[in-house]
Every structure is written in C-alpha cells, then in structure tokens.
Write a structure and sequence with these properties.
The protein has 122 residues and is an all-alpha fold. It has helices at residues 4-12, 20-46, 50-57, 69-83, 89-103, 111-121. The termini are far apart.
C-alpha cells in the first residue's frame, strides 16, 4: 500500500546503505542549500521597504525595490510587515538548520528546540 511516510523516508532518509563519503557529500549539499536560503532571507529582509507592500497589493510588480525581487518582497512583507523585527528570527532558525545539516544532525532531533525558538521570539 502506498503511504506518504514511506515515500518521505525513501526520498529523504535513505536506506542507511550509503557510504560515509556519500553521506558527507549529502550533508554538505543540504547545508549549502539551507545556507543559501538563509542568505536570501537575510537579503530580502534587510532590503525591505514598506512602499513595496503598496506595490504588491496594487499589482505594480515593476516597481518592486526589494533586492530579492518579487519573492523577496513577498517574503519580507510576510515576516517584517506582520511580525516586525521578530521576523529576523526566521533567518536565525534557517541558519540553525543549516548548521545541523552540515554536522549531520537530523532536524527531527532538534525539532523541539526549533519550536521553542519560534515561541520564544513571540
């Protein structure tokens, strides 16, 4: 029978038969991707302009001033426009996930700490 959990485990956890070198390369790729996402989040949040929210909601996409483009403007409006300065905690949590990926620590083992970080910022 098809289950989403079995598919998830097969895609993202592997079978445990990988060589240590392959596991290390996988860790570095995951960590690099998370680091690039954190860098994009930081650039999008630091280049946030409240004027972009007007341009977003009035469909004037050619007047977006965010360095992350349209996606960066939407992201920064979602976090800084609604949460304010606390929105930067998203970048810190992504950096924490990137560090865990580089070290080979599963995000499932630190999920309670990440959830605590989310609640601590509010």
């Amino acid at each position: 029978m098809f289950s989403v959990k079995a598919l998830w485990d097969k895609l993202f956890q592997g079978e445990g038969t990988e060589s240590p070198k392959t596991e290390r390369v996988t860790q570095e790729i995951k960590g690099s991707i998370y680091s690039l996402v954190a860098l994009f989040e930081f650039i999008a949040l630091t280049s946030y302009l409240p004027l972009d929210s007007f341009n977003l909601f009035s469909a004037r996409f050619d007047h977006i001033n965010n360095l992350g483009g349209l996606v960066g403007a939407l992201f920064s409006e979602l976090f800084l426009g609604t949460l304010g300065f606390v929105g930067y905690s998203v970048v810190l949590m992504t950096i924490a996930i990137a560090v865990c990926a580089f070290r080979g620590i599963s995000t499932r083992t630190i999920s309670t700490q990440l959830a605590g970080g989310v609640f601590a910022t509010f």
